[in-house]
Amino acid sequence: MASSSSSSSHVWKYDVFLSFRGEDTRKNIVSHLHKELVNSGVVTFKDDKRLEIGDSISEEISRAIQDSRFALVILSKNYASSRWCLDELLMIMDLHFKKEIKVVPIFYGVDPSHVRHQTGSFTFDKYQGLEIAKKVTNWRKALTQIASIAGKDFATCEDEALMIEEIVEGISNQLLIMQPVDYSDIVGMETHMELLNSLLSMESGDEVRMIGIWGMGGIGKTTIARCLFDRFSRPFPSRCFLENVSKIYRNHDASYLRKKFISTALGLAEEKMKFSSVEIGPQEIKARFGRRKVFVVFDNVDDMKQVHALAKESNWFGPGSRIIITTRDRGLLISCGVRTVYEVKCLDTGAALQLFNQLAFEGGLPPSELYEKISIRASWLAQGLPAAIEAYGLFFRRMTSLKEWDDALCRFIEAPHKNVMEILKISYDGLEEADKNVFLHVACLFNGEPLQRATTLLDDGELQGCLGLKILAEKSLIGITAGGYIKMHSLIDQTARAIVNQESVQRPQGRRVLWDPYQIYKLLESNATSEPTNCMSLHMCDMVFALHLGGYTKYHDTLKFLKIYKHSDHIESKLHLSSDDTNLLSSRLRLLQWDTFPLTTFPCRFRPRDLVEVSLHRSNMTVFWEETMMPNLRRLDLSGSENLEHLPDLSMAVNLEELITRGCKRLKRIPESISNLTMLTKLDVSYCDQLNSYHIIIRELSGGCRQVALYFSGKEVEMESITNLSVGGNIHIQMLWLDGNADHLCFSTEHQAPDELMKGEQQLPHNEPPLEFSMRTLHAVPEFYCPEPMRKAEQKPRPMSEFHDFNLIDIIRFKYNADDASFLCYGLSMFPCLKELNLINLNIEVIPDDVCGLQFLEKLDWSGNDFETLPETMNQLPRLKYASLCNCRRLKALPELVQLERIKLSGCVSLQSVFKISHAEQDWGRFQLLELWVDDCKTIQSISDKFGQYIKLSYVDLSRNDFETLPSSIGGLFSLGTLCLNKCKKLKSIERVPLCLKYLYAHGCESLETISLPLNHSVKHLDLSHCFCLKQDEHLITQFLNEGENKEESLRFAFFPGTEVPSYFDKIKTGKSLTIGLPHSWPSPKMLGFDGCIMLSCKKPFHIRFSPFSYDWDWGYERYFYLYLKPDFFHCRESSFHSTEDEEEAVKSDHLVIIRGLKNFSDKINKFGIQSDLQFSKEFKSPPAELKSCGFSLIWEDDQTDKITKNKKQRPADSLQIWKVEEPLENLNRESVSCGPCGD
User: Fold this and answer.
1) Each residue of 796-810: pLDDT tens digit?
2) How far is the C-alpha of 385 from the C-alpha of 448, rounded, in Å?
């Protein structure tokens, strides 16, 4: 793209230097050439005052040559008779071979061979003498060299003006190529260019490459193609960017489209083309471009006919040509034989925000942190779609206040910007009517659902869901994830809702899809049930009023898809019906999904035969029909239906694939008829309490892959096709490589194994072991580990076909018992697709070495086992990010797992080090660890020295350890956000915590005497409950409030032992609320917030602890701050940090809740107050604590000095502080609960 000059940083003064013999050419070719160059905008040096005096060229000429990109050397009859010309040529050729100038020779009235051989007028007879001999030799060499460079010979041209025009055009084109193109302002463009450059394969000059650029509307395909064209097309003799091909074709015809293409590619005016009034066909394109190397972009193609009109065959274009097609339709590219397709995806969050800020704010940066926070919310609306980001950015640029921004956000949350919807609706308008119907059904029912589920439900003979979904995916209206789930962009989903709303206005009696809660409510309330609606989706959480369906007539038998759901369990259902109501229960239903279905059984008249799926989560049903006559039923999900006692005979449900009764606590038996269901692949009967008495045996069947037999209390339920199983009870697993008892077993299978594995499987010889270490592992197993089946397994390597393709395995005992029999795990290599492996409380003594074969493993939980070490081969698991090894009481050491991001080692009482370091050169940056739990790991040696190894740590739990001071290396963790020190009974001081720390938990540190927070600290949650040696430390309270980083619209909380509200606070009152009037001078100075205190007293025999979930708040119209306290209460007998004699003192100790609240208050309020409430769970028959008193002080801004002072009598005048205005309140609560649970 850029010049190949080594002086890439050189600042060029001239584009072209003209070297010529004045007496031959000044008044003819040079004058014409100079004029044409200047008219074309080429900066040219021409020596008009040429006086050839002296023996060498002037300094001005020398500098001009060095400052030029090109040298045009006009070799005329008397050129060699001028020493100056020859010296210029010598310098030019020297720079040419240094690649610092490009040379174009022009042979004007001379024979190039005379120049090459120095004959004719280029002889050197006049240059005699020893003093000039060396120069003559160099001149001869320079003339020979320039004659060998391709140039222009005027002897061969018929039209001198035309040749001059060609020379200038060639120079101009090359100058354009040499100019660097700046794409820095287009976010993400460089990445696209790098990826597309490799697809273009410009070095391959023998083939014609056709490349498709594919993506949803508004994603930036045209912009990318334009940048690609500008960057790579200039070296091509012919190039063309044909914009909006679909519109040209729609407004004209194929012949006009071809004319437009040819005229653009050849740089001809359409009216001057010889065939301007003639119908032209594809043969004209082939004739014009068949031997010509072209770079062409056909933009926005939406019909295969358009491609066939312009580029049906690659041989229509010369070797080395590149044809780019942009489209929303991948199927079009496939049909046209375009095999190389570049998919354009939405911008990631960071790039989207950068682009939004460039458009929304002058200078590209928000003017304050408040605008920065709200701009994050605004850019999120676009979900990375560039066209939407542009529309929203330009719209918000007009907003002049935060109130306007907030109003606009509320509007766009409900419906997309008009311009965005118009772009996205183009794809919908281009669909066939049947595919439009599928699109609306997918948006209403299946966004985020498995593709297979949607396909099965929509294939009803009318919708043709399989074909429709394929078309929607090809046209970028939906995406399919690697796991096989449908993903619809949120703006497309909003567009679908808008389309449905428009339809309801345009044809209220023919709405195909209903999902707006208000419209459904009005429809059912008005009893307008004759309307032929095909699909209804009702989110009950969005219902404002309750609706009783009793008394309504039967719903019209067009309803095929009924989805009534809710996301919040605590919200009571507002939709009611009686046992004889069948309004919504159409006999044509294919999908019946109804959360908290209120009836105990279906109405007797409801006998649907077309049902494909029944999903009744947390229903009130006791019996699900006595028998099922539903041959089409594929999925039956009754999970959480706690009153369900019986399932029907399922022998007639021959197509049943999934049966789920998870959490049906009263279910008494599983019908034996499921043995005959050959299509059944998923069975979930876990957490069914009545089934726990069953003795369940899990065995592998020989002769095939993934064949599992279940035996319920001696009755064999054999399911050869099962791929997903979840079962609880008295389970005995008798698989070839796993043997032992468990309380819970779960395995699941993805629809498709990872591509990398499939490739590896194809290359594996069937007559060899799949992993060569697997046989070696078997020999290392102790004799008592090897029952007879195991010894047989040693003797016969297993072919790949017998591998299980589970992606998840859970084998769990609910409690750890050191005396339980050890679960035997002989090998894991037969589960190569595993992403998650949970073997919990199984007393496993050895993890086999072949664990390294689990190359896709991301997460493991091996808590409650008896191994002392783990295989070194675990460091060969590249995707492993999370490991939980809690309560592995014999574990002494870990291998060097540098790839882990989170590890839980709670209760590993024998652990001596976190990771074993295998080499002397310790590069701590190798470790990726972000979160570390080592609570109750008292045997770890030199814990204070270890944290420097893990520089990326953001969460550390050191609870229940025996150190007296905080490990010094903690202070060097510059990303640490959360530190847990709960129940560190010997801890006496906390000092030198990192400035970045936000959450500090030190509950129950009974020896803690001092705590020091750094100036401008970031702590927003500090729990020092039950740290009784602190007593009531008012200095610490002041330090927490006044020495922290104060951000506008923020809250900080702390919890200290204390018996009364400190005098630090102005207003103090008994009780849990306090309100005061604001002074008459308000709003000057401005009120910025308050410091508050609430005193809470525990009642015997309860203790209290504050977690991130211990409080909630609300700014009640800015006049009140409401605080809802929900601390954790527990009995003294559950606590381990007090002896009996200390118990009385402990439980009587009161606590203080300290608050700093900052807010941008409205100047219209005239009073302010604080109100608090104590909440506790229903298990307490009487309150475990009470709120005794409260107090607060207001915080004011001094308009004169821009400082903040406390309005109270006791505070000294020198306590003023400058405050920083930064963080908005709406993000704080989200942050407060995002740090995860703290240590116990």
Assistant:
1) 344 444 567 789 999
2) 19
